[in-house]
Amino acid sequence: TVRALEKVPESRIETLCVREDIARKTVEALKKGHPYEELAYHVLRIEGS
């Protein structure tokens, strides 16, 4: 129903990708396996460690 509030269970996935190409492939895989049109994700780059 349009404008209807829907509550669904959520999953949280955390991973450490040591190279940018792996991070990109990981995001692509998440998008492919997600059941909805829009996927909420956040990528952080940690430098200098």
From TrEMBL:
Protein name as annotated: ATP phosphoribosyltransferase
InterPro entries linked to this entry: N-reg_PII/ATP_PRibTrfase_C (IPR015867)
Domain of life per record: Eukaryota
Biological source species: Oidiodendron maius (strain Zn)
